[in-house]
Amino acid sequence: MRPAVFLDRDDTLIDTRAVTASTPHPGDLTDPALVRLLSNAAAGCRALAEAGFALVVISNQGAVARGRATLRDVEAVNDRLRALLAAEGVRLDATYYCPFHPGGSAPAFRVEHPWRKPAPGMYLAAAAELELDLARSWAVGDAARDVLSAVTAGIASARAIIVGKGPGIWYPDLAAAAEVICQASRSPAT
């Protein structure tokens, strides 16, 4: 079984907060024309793929449950992400997202769901469908829920990394995290 790096989408791979800051719903990126890769995201993904990791996006998309986006909107943003990465020579192995949120307004999606982070459902589904080794996998995200869902799924806490800016964050971007992951994967202890 192959190890993976599970990647959060928003503010790990693509710039969401800054791009949507002046919109009516900050944080909800629904327009594919606004999708921008974060600095060094493609380089980080490329390094991870070259090191033999599957690249799997794991993303909460509660905007669907809140009635601010459709499934088609989420897919259009995901398609744009894949296209931008492909232009940089990077291919994602899979993309999983959870449109559910118990506080939503759209009845079909207004429920708690085992895929919604911090629950581990998306990780477990990806591992089963793609035959991934969670014990040798890593997770990279921008929030504590990314770490919690990864650890609950069976990824060691030392292999769950938060990137971005802020207190207690050790890695500024995906390229820095990828360097640590690749170095650890070459070490005989990992």
Key words describing this protein structure:
Rossmann fold; alpha/beta; five-stranded parallel beta sheet; 190 residues
Question: What report would you give on this structure?
Answer:
With 190 residues, the chain is an alpha/beta fold. The protein has a single domain (4-186), classed as Rossmann fold, CATH 3.40.50.1000. It is 34% helix and 12% strand. It contains six helices and five strands, in the order βααβαβαβαβα. It has helices at 17-20, 41-50, 71-87, 121-130, 144-153, 174-186, and strands at 4-7, 54-60, 94-98, 138-141, 160-162. A five-stranded parallel sheet has the order 3-2-1-4-5, sandwiched between helices. β2, α3 (71-87) and β3 form a beta-alpha-beta unit. The longest helix has 17 residues, at 71-87. The mean pLDDT is 95.
